[in-house]
């Protein structure tokens, strides 16, 4: 007997039929003797619908009220799933984030979980009930409702699994696991049976959308294994992906996957003084405006000046460019330029730690296709490049092929 936390995403609970199908699956796990805690998202499209409503009424409205509204989608699904389970003679009880007491900070729309009171849940499990918890939401110290950011139900599930010391956190979604790259771009992408939490963390931060990055951070920090499975596949032996400790990964490969991100933009100040304190003068105002910076590149100076380039989310481009123009003027920079038609593409794999030449192999494959690299950055288990957005699909296919990741090659 195990304690399992399962999370079902929006498409998995998108219709009354789907909710009943989820109830059946939950009951199946319960009947096998497991304790089951279920986290659900809002029905698919619901959070977007609520966002549109908010924007139609007052797009500048208070962040507190925004979260009051956005959190309602999940409240509907917990109640419906609980009723569906009751209809199948499986005792269940639903809780909102506030009812559990999922305590967060007060950063509306991107709150972080600080503590979970697991007492109610443990008592209900001991009484033989399935416990259903609303994803994506919590409550701050003053009793305000908060939400955790889009895709935040993944984080609720992992955080609950950690708090309850669950054996596994299962994320049910509309795909049967993690692939070597997005199969919509490379149809030959291979299913990955298991990979390291650290690899998943890099893939998620480099643009893979299967799991919310904060959920993976949480799992990595607390060593909680996550299994990604499809809620649309009823086969007992259906495929899934286990994201787990590096030593438990079945197969070691040099490059696990290719991740990409189309949401970035690049900004450059050229001819800034090459002296102490310049980087903070440039990036300080950017971070004061709450704009997150991804890659940063500064050249070796010459003629006592240097060039400074960084990337940000494309949504922040206009605001960041304005800030940079005024910083550039005060520093006496030669030019301030930018481009919001770029993309970042990365290869990720823990095997890189012990293999030399992975980066050159990547650069050669891209060069052979005539793709120019605008920026390069590396970590121990990742190499990322920024390229023109129009080459993204070609670059993804090229790297997938260059590192032999197609079905039946790396994965068997
Ligand atoms: N309902 C929220 C969203 O659509 C949270 C989630 O689904 O994880 O982003
Ligand atoms: Mg999701």
* Anisotropy-based shape: globular
User: Structural class, from secondary structure content?
Assistant: alpha/beta
How many helices?
13
Strands of the largest sheet, in order across it? 3-6-2-1-9-13-14-12
Estimated radius of gyration: 23 Å
Mean pLDDT, nearest integer? 95
Strand content: 25-35%
Unreliable residue stretches: none
Question: How far do the termini sit from each other?
Answer: 31 Å
- The count of strands amounts to 22
Bound molecules: aspartic acid, magnesium ion
Largest sheet: 8 strands, mixed
Assign a percent range to the helix content.
25-40%
Strand and helix map with partners:
Layout: E1 3-8, H1 16-31, E2 35-40, H2 46-57, H3 63-70, H4 72-87, E3 92-95, H5 97-100, E4 102-104, E5 113-116, H6 119-126, E6 130-134, E7 137-139, E8 145-147, H7 153-163, E9 168-173, E10 178-179, E11 191-192, E12 194-196, H8 197-205, H9 213-222, E13 226-230, E14 240-244, E15 257-261, E16 264-273, H10 278-288, E17 293-298, E18 305-313, H11 317-331, E19 335-339, E20 342-348, H12 358-368, E21 375-379, E22 382-388, H13 392-402
Parallel strand pairs: 1-2, 1-9, 2-6, 3-6, 9-13, 12-14
Antiparallel strand pairs: 4-5, 7-8, 10-11, 13-14, 15-20, 16-18, 16-19, 17-18, 20-22, 21-22
Helix pairs in contact: 1-4, 7-9, 8-9, 10-11, 12-13
The structure holds aspartic acid (ASP) and magnesium ion (MG).
Magnesium ion is lined by residues 9, 151.
Characterize the structure shown.
By secondary structure, this protein is of the alpha/beta class. The chain has 13 helices and 22 strands. The strands form 6 sheets. The protein has an 8-stranded mixed β-sheet, with helices on both faces. A hairpin with a 6-residue loop joins strand 17 and strand 18. Helix 1 packs across helix 4 and helix 10 runs antiparallel to helix 11. The longest helix has 16 residues. The chain is globular. The chain starts with a strand and ends in a 10-residue tail after the last helix. The mean pLDDT is about 95.
């Amino acid at each position: 007997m195990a304690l399992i936390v399962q999370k079902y995403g929006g498409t998995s609970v998108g219709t009354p039929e789907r909710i009943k199908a989820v109830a059946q699956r939950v009951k199946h796990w319960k009947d096998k003797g497991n304790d089951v805690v279920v986290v659900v998202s809002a029905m698919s499209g619901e959070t977007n619908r609520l966002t549109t409503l908010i924007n139609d009424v007052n797009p500048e409205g208070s962040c507190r009220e925004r979260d009051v509204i956005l959190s309602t989608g999940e409240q509907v699904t917990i109640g419906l799933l609980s009723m569906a389970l009751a209809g199948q003679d499986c005792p269940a009880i639903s809780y909102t984030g506030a009812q559990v007491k999922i305590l967060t900070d007060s950063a509306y729309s991107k709150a972080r979980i600080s503590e979970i009171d697991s007492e109610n849940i443990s008592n209900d499990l001991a009484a033989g009930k399935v416990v259903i918890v609303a994803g994506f939401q919590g409550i701050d110290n003053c009793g305000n409702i908060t939400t955790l950011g889009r895709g935040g139900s993944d984080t609720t599930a992992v955080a609950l699994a950690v708090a309850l010391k669950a054996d596994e956190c299962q994320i049910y979604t509309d795909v049967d696991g993690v692939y070597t790259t997005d199969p919509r771009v490379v149809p030959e992408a291979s299913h990955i049976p298991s990979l390291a939490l650290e690899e998943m963390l890099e893939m998620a931060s480099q643009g893979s959308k299967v799991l919310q990055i904060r959920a993976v951070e949480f799992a990595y920090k607390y060593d909680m294994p996550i299994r990604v499975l499809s809620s649309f596949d009823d086969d007992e032996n259906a495929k899934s992906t286990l994201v787990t400790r590096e030593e438990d990964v079945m197969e070691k490969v040099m490059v696990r996957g290719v991740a990409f991100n189309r949401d970035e933009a690049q900004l450059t100040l050229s001819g800034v003084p090459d002296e102490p304190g310049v980087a903070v003068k440039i990036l300080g105002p950017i971070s004061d405006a709450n704009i997150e910076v991804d890659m940063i590149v500064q050249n070796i100076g010459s003629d006592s000046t240097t060039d400074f380039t960084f990337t940000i989310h494309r949504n922040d481009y206009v605001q960041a460019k304005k800030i940079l123009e005024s910083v550039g003027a005060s520093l006496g920079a030669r030019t301030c330029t930018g481009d919001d038609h770029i993309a970042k593409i990365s290869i990720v794999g823990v095997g890189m730690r012990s293999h030399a030449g992975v980066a050159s192999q990547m650069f050669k494959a891209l060069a052979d296709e005539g793709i120019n690299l605008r920026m390069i950055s590396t970590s121990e288990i990742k190499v990322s490049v920024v390229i023109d957005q129009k080459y993204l699909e070609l670059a993804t296919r090229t790297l997938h092929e260059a590192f032999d990741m197609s079905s039946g090659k790396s994965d068997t």
